């Protein structure tokens, strides 16, 4: 790894990997890291042929949250500067949450504060059994406001009351139970588990996945009324008639892989 704080790699399958690369600081982030991550996510959102993103971290920890030196600088910020900082972090979380392709958080070690926010913004999260988590902002006299929409969407308001109000650390088993994680594996099996999930994701239609992400986001908080019923019917009608929808059905009927599945033979 280079000394860049964030590293982007894209493989031949169209799988991007963004790696937090500040291992000596437990991948704590500051304004520079936020700007770099936001810029890379903007690039990926416009990239043709992108199929998935893995968000990973170098070293022992996923992310310790905010960098201490950055926090020291923030202590002297004006209200306007603090608001601008919060807006930049909010923009990062939104970009990750709205990326059109499936996203996987690969988590090891500590994931604290904003690190939990990054995990919650990803569509899927796999962690090692030794990973540890905390929403410890209240212990510093603040709160995880910017990341809260994504964290609460992931774990629900009841679990959020426990872990946000207490600032306690919790383990991977608890993170799995409350919905922050989808899978917990042995540390040595982490990459294998991520790769297995990528294989499943790459078997699916990319436009269908992007449409499904929008569907989940749009449907989640809406009442089941006639407007929603009409909306969902219109969405599936459009997708069925699309080139990808036609190809998927033809491939199924002809008992062959669809065109978007990579031939690795």
UniProtKB/TrEMBL annotation:
Region forming the signal peptide: none
A GO BP annotation: isoprenoid catabolic process
InterPro entries in the record: ClpP/crotonase-like_dom_sf, Enoyl-CoA_hydra/iso, Enoyl-CoA_hydra_C, Enoyl-CoA_Hydratase/Isomerase
Pfam families: ECH_1
One Gene Ontology MF term: catalytic activity
Coiled coil: none
Lineage: superkingdom: Bacteria
Protein family according to the UniProt entry: Belongs to the enoyl-CoA hydratase/isomerase family.
Name of this protein: Enoyl-CoA hydratase/isomerase family protein
